[in-house]
Amino acid sequence: MRIYLDHNATTPVDPVAAEAMMRSLQHLFGNASSVHYYGQQAKAALDNARSALAALVGAEPAEVIFTSGGTEADNFAIRGAAEALEPSGRKHLITSGIEHEAVLNTFKALAKRGWRTTVLPLDASGSVSADRLRDAMTEDTALVSIMHANNEIGTIQPITELATIAHAHGALFHTDAVQSVGKIPVNVRTLGVDLLAVSGHKFYGPKGIGALWVKRGVRLSPFLSGGKQERNRRAGTENVPGAIGMGIAASLAMQKMDAEAGRLSALRDRLEAALGQSSDQVTILGKDSERLPNTSCFAIAGKSSETLVMALDLAGYAISAGSACSSGKVRPSHVALAMGLGEGVARGALRVSLGAWNKAAEVDGFVAQLSKAAGLQRHNLPSMQPAA
Ligand code: PLP
Q: Fewer CB atoms near the end CB (10 Å): N or C, the chain?
């Protein structure tokens, strides 16, 4: 028996999306730039996918640029905006300490090339405070990049308020919405941002496809040189099967979002209530903040996340250490550190991220295995409601 509880890392492809992708691989092989029948068939499918994704984030289809994923979308937004604004003399960039490496390492790369960068700390609840952003803004700030929902703890940032501050100083605002799109309502106009990054594999679409939403009128320097695809903004033959899969996943996410968010937050609360019975041993990160419905991040006193992730894997449960980097090596969670939590919590942070096929019985089974592996006091656990 294997139970997957790591949906913020990636999700399985929805079977409806997978089937449409398979069909497109066989029958829609045209190059979307070709003028003949085959090309136009592919282009029509690409446009449908663009419309579906635009609808999911409240945007116009013409503002959506397909990319190879969230990492490329973040890079394109930050590097593209920074380079486009360089001649104006704006050489300052602001981000936060809880961003994904796709943003943090892009900032580091730009800092090496002479950009001044500010990385804002978080308050204890895991939020970027408006006052801190206001204090950090300068007359030459070109861009502020703050994520919508955090991948480790799931906390949701006050993007509308933060974007208003950036705009008051004439700066652009980018948000990495890779973890929020498909899970909670995301509307580019309500958020008031200029750039927003999306990744297909976080909401039951395929890997290797994502999108950058660029508000009409915002100028970005091209990230890749080559052909004139994507309205001359992103060169390279389009990944039509990937876009089809992501487009279908986007439509399904829109249909299911409300019900699924309610179901997942109930499961997450069930998990945390059970863990909370050992409250002297367990710290739940961001518990009092607005969070993604599917995400729970917690640390167990005196336990290393690496050991527990391995023990749970042996027992059949797939979860993440708070911050497993792409090499697979577990480091202290930079998110927990940015929140001002100690090294012990940062080293022990575990992330459970629930998804479409998880059931209450799986959550209960997980809590039982975790309690065993970590030596948690379980005296109160039987008070949980029977699994549905
Ligand atoms: N941003 C966040 C918040 C993420 O969680 C991830 C993936 O883990 C990415 C960006 C990168 O997305 P992709 O895997 O599509 O490159």
A: N
102 lines ligand 1 (CB under 6 A): yes
Looking from the CA of 265 toward its CB, the CA atoms found within 13 Å total: 13
Q: Write the CB contacts of 330 (distance below 8 Å, at least 6 apart in sequence).
A: 305, 306, 309, 321, 323, 324
**Any idea what the Cα angle at residue 177 is, between residues 173 and 179, rounded to 5°?**
155
Domain limits, the chain: 3-9+257-374, 15-252
Return the CATH number of the domain spanning residue range 3-9+257-374: 3.90.1150.10
- Active site (annotated) includes residue 325: yes
Mean pLDDT of all residues in 317-336? 73
Q: Does the Cβ of 69 fall within 6 Å of ligand 1?
A: yes
Q: Which atom of ligand 1 is nearest to the CA of 200?
A: 15
**Pocket flag, ligand 1, residue 212 (CB < 6 Å):** no
3-state SS class at 75: helix
Q: How far apart are CA 259 and CA 253, in angstroms?
A: 10
CATH topology (fold) of 15-252: Aspartate Aminotransferase; domain 2 (3.40.640)
Q: Is the CB of 179 under 6 A from ligand 1?
A: yes
- Cα distance between residue 153 and residue 19, in whole Å: 33
Ligand 1 mutation pick, 67, 71, 105, 333, max ligand atoms within 8 A of CB: 71
Closest by CA to 201, choosing from 1, 3, 21, is: 21
Residue closest to 249 by CA, chosen among 200, 196, 208, 293:
200
Nearest Cα residue to atom 5 of ligand 1: 151
pTM recorded for the entire structure: 0.95
User: Residue 386: is its pLDDT beyond 80?
Assistant: no
